[in-house]
Amino acid sequence: MSDEESYEYEYDDDEDEQMGGDGGSDEEEFDYTDDDQSNHDEGEVALENAYYNAKGLRETDLTGAEEAFLGVITLEQGELAKESGGEDTHGTKFGPWSYKSTKQLIKLHLASNNTSKAMEQYNQLLLCVAGGVVSPN
To answer: Is the whole model's pTM more than 0.85, yes or no?
Structure first.
């Protein structure tokens, strides 16, 4: 085959009519996704972005990184509350991004020699694990 060859495809309207089509319509039917699913996906993307933005702050601004990781936890708890029908979970429901953020907070506090805050975050990490957020692996 050379680059100069061109192919021309023909489409016969009679075949479309035989297959039950409407003949001349070039419109295709699309199956649109549910808006709830796209909102869930947007929430997941926002959580992931917030986590990695916070992780990027670790190198330059420890206080800003701490606030950002706490914001990820709050954001995820809000998302989980929405999914559960808006019931008030009083900050006891955790997801995978809360687990990861809590782990990073422990590392931040240990790096800054703040063992009391590290222990507080470690207790929260244990709550995440007890809640079944992470698998045993």
So the answer is: no
